[in-house]
Amino acid sequence: MHRTPLHSVHRRLGARMVPFAGWEMPVQYTGIVAEHRAVRTAAGLFDVSHMGELEFRGAGAAAAVARLTCADVDRITQGQARYSLVLDQAGGVIDDVIVYRLGDRHFRLVVNASNTEAVLDHARAVTSGIAALECNDRSAEFALLAIQGPRALGIVGQLAAGDVTAIGTYRCRPGRVAGHPVLLARTGYTGEDGFELFVAADRAEALWNDLLAAGAAAGLQPAGLGARDTLRLEASMPLYGHELTRGVSPLEVGLGRFVSHGDGYVGAGAIAAQRAAGVPRRLVHLHLAGRAIARQGYPITTAAGAQIGTVTSGSHAPWLQRSIAMGLVARKYSATDTELAILVRGRAHAAIVVARPFYRRSD
User: pLDDT per residue over 307-317, tens digit each?
Assistant: First the structure.
């Protein structure tokens, strides 16, 4: 079981630790609901150092990333971040990633912890013919901290050298926070504004403590993977292994806008065929009647009881105060306001298709 550079901090804070993707990670500190609400109203601090960081350098770096991901890499400018996907030849999702362009010949991909080796192996296979390319796994060198919530910018601004509000959404820049050299990225996975901070592993504990101290008066709380999951679900963000797998096309889950119309990336032929023919399934967003909780794998049926799909993610939504779920269903049942049902432990519970996202922050 791997441990992040902040493992001893989590222990001191009394976090409940659980296995996750081969890592021992904090699932909660004071409680998932309290941490979720802190992020919605003030700010939460997450350790996401289990995520992988792959770097591509050299004259062939742009071509490699354009081959590996379905992003339009030539449109990513220096200092910009872009959500993208790594696909197989059939158009299935190997992983979803964030692509950071750190220089003309320098890219960083942040990948899911469970997929770091798979993406690295795939990258080396599909870019082997590209000259002047270095591809390295730098995951062990970095810790990654995420501070999210309406007060996150103010907290980071107290400690940062320079105006962090000048960093636009899905932009990044090197800087210093509390004297620590970091890469500041205005990205996140909660539906709130904030930053993800890449810092050298041996500085992670000091930076974590500096952020918590600076944010104490503003209500900053440490938050675990439990709140991270309920927050991303409320914000209708997909999770690998749930909404995204090798058996799922990005077009089925509403991610077509992130998929290039070019033909240079792995899986482009399959995606072009899907765009021409249409996909048979769609990801739907569901409000459940009552208090029943839908979980991954639960059957989704028509109101009359015919099975048409399965739940990919579901939970009680702490901020929205209702039961919500996402699931893949036959396309004809995916229209907003369609009345469906979910079988929870064999019992049908009424559900209705709603527009995404479940939650959107008001700026």
Answer: 999 999 999 99
